[in-house]
Amino acid sequence: MKCRVCRGAAVIDVRRHNAYFCGEHFVRHCHRQVERAISDHKMFTTDDRLLVAVSGGKDSLALWEILLKLGYEADGLFIGLGIDGYSTDSAGYVERFVEKVATPAGATLLRVDLQSDFGYDVEQAAASTGRAPCSACGLSKRHLFNTAALDGGYDAVATGHNLDDEAAVLFGNTLRWQTDFMRRQRPVLPEGNGFPRKVKPMIRLSERESAAYCVVSGIDYQVDECPMSAGNSHIRYKEMLNMLEESSPGAKAEFYNGFLRNLTPILDAETSAMSDDAQAPAIGPCGRCGSPTDNEVCSFCRLLQRVAQPASNVGDSISG
Ligand code: AMP
Ligand code: FES
Ligand code: ZN
Ligand code: ZN
User: Residue 228 CA to chain centroid, in angstroms?
Assistant: First the structure.
């Protein structure tokens, strides 16, 4: 098969675009998709300082490399989650990337470690709060992304969520018609109320494209899935959507892009028609750490309290 652009030997097909690409033009295709996501959704400009949350996986490392190649000022943030074996392996991929790509481009890596900085790991957090590991992990990551971005004076936090991730989350939200979650499922969440801006510049690339991008660009990444995520519904939704994509190329993008095009304007109109109180709960500073919260103490501080307590006190839920 021949590259759509130069007619040279193709290395990958992108069925939803009905196109084959050689290595060089595939890289350009990926850069264009990221540029388009950034401009379509007005995510940021070259004047902004970005903090890329990097897990060591393909999407976030590809994102960091692409942003640096496109001329953005982007540092990285890695959070050590203390997941046996997996977290140290992931840190190794990030460190090698930093040495090979980020440092030569003038970017730096910030690091936070749950165990050494806060005295717990994901497994302990899950056990002492009664939450699923992914939920305790997600809560910790969200809080630490926010504080690292605000403390470092960054304009936005960028994560590697790709088309498959967003379509799977949307699928779950749609199955249960969780319109409040859909309202927040955006490629850009603006800054405000003490939260930094959050952006997802990889939403126009599939998981397969981001893996191929890393291979073609010589980026070595953590291939294994997090062992804690085995069997979770997000993975099942991805498998279902892949089956659909196999028989109808483009179905995944159509589903997610159709949501952005057709449903988000309706949800936005509905939100603006609500009273201020109904639109968003009152946000104030957490009594312990000062982070924005709709409670007296934020959920991260409540998690810290819980992990410091004996296991017999577990039971109350930590949400909000
Ligand atoms: P996940 O929730 O594991 O699918 O990850 C979604 C995104 O969150 C990744 O693409 C990264 O941008 C970010 N992320 C996940 N894990 C970490 C981590 N340990 N440290 C920093 N960022 C992370
Ligand atoms: Fe958080 Fe797996 S990465 S539980
Ligand atoms: Zn070509
Ligand atoms: Zn707090």
Answer: 17
pLDDT at 248: 96
DSSP 3-state of 312: helix
For ligand 2, say whether the CB of 228 is within 6 Å of any of its atoms.
yes
Q: Which residues line ligand 1 (CB under 6 A)?
A: 53-55, 59-60, 77-79, 81, 141, 159-161, 165
Contacts for 141 with CB less than 8 Å, ≥ 6 apart: 53, 79, 81
| 206 alpha carbon, distance to own chain's centre | 14
Residues with Cβ within 8 Å of residue 215, at least 6 apart in sequence: none
Selection from 301, 320, 316 nearest residue 129 by Cα: 316
Task: Kindly list the averaged pLDDT for each block of 10 residues, start to end, along the chain of length 320.
Answer: 97 96 98 98 98 98 98 98 96 98 98 97 93 93 97 98 98 96 95 95 98 98 92 92 97 98 94 75 92 95 91 48
How far apart (Å, rounded) are the C-alpha atoms in residues 193 and 11? 46
All structural domains of the chain: 40-223+234-285 (3.40.50.620)
**What are 267's two structure tokens?**
């949800």
Ligand 1, atom 18: closest residue by C-alpha: 55
Q: Residue 14: beta bridge partners?
A: 19
pTM of full prediction above 0.90 = yes
